[in-house]
Amino acid sequence: MKQRILTGVIAAAVFLPLVIFGELPFTLLVYAIGILALFELLRMKGLKLISAPGIISMLLLAVLLCPSQYAEDAGLGITKGEVVFLAVLLLLAYTVLSKNSFTFDEAAFVALAAVYIGFGFYYFIEIRNIGLSYVFFAIGVVWSTDSGAYFIGKAFGKRKLWPEISPNKTVEGFWGGILTAVVFSAIYQAATGFPHAYLFVLIITVLLSIVGQIGDLAESAFKRHYQVKDSGRILPGHGGMLDRFDSFLFVMPVLYFLLVLFQPFGL
Fold this sequence. Notes:
By secondary structure, this protein is mostly helical. It contains eleven helices and two strands, in the order αααααααββαααα. It has helices at 2-21, 23-45, 52-65, 68-74, 80-97, 104-130, 132-156, 171-192, 198-225, 241-245, 248-262; strands at 160-162, 166-170. Strand 1 and strand 2 form a beta hairpin. It is an enzyme of class 2 (transferase).
């Protein structure tokens, strides 16, 4: 526990100032985290980062992570979706060149891994560009959900939520995580003057809390499938980058979509 707390304090001391500063330093931090997360995911599958598929996935990741303002400034006239399709074609071509030692299934895995991590962290950057308060709101919802699910699940949990995926999670912990996130969001809005209607914040808090727990379960699913305990060991006591950011890869895109979707209504 001491190691876990120490790692968390050091990581927060590095991460939070760059989040607050934003701009290029924060973008570079997200790139670094994204590269490490992709490396962890490829390693689960037994694929090397320094290989033709690994390099293709890295290049695809770099494009997908590119913030919208930089992409517009470049003026290349090609969309990220088209880059994804080009990467898929290259991966399929490599199945031929490798005489099918690199299979279609592996090509699909590499492409999906880069899209999952690339777009997930891209929306982390986009949310920061919208405003720092939204980043802290998302971080607070995820952390309060995790804490509430853990402590309430440990104290009152009896019914298993999804034992085939994560045997320690309970239904009581699931609802406890949502309740804790709602309490956090109410305090956060009252303390910061978060510029949205209370009902809207309540709705998006519940949705993000659920989505974040699904993101956590999704990572648990492929760790169980590939029979690994943690995605990595870069964060002693916490595991790897995917272990720490699995919920954010789901929460940040959904938060961005909700803000865009409801912006015309001024909620």
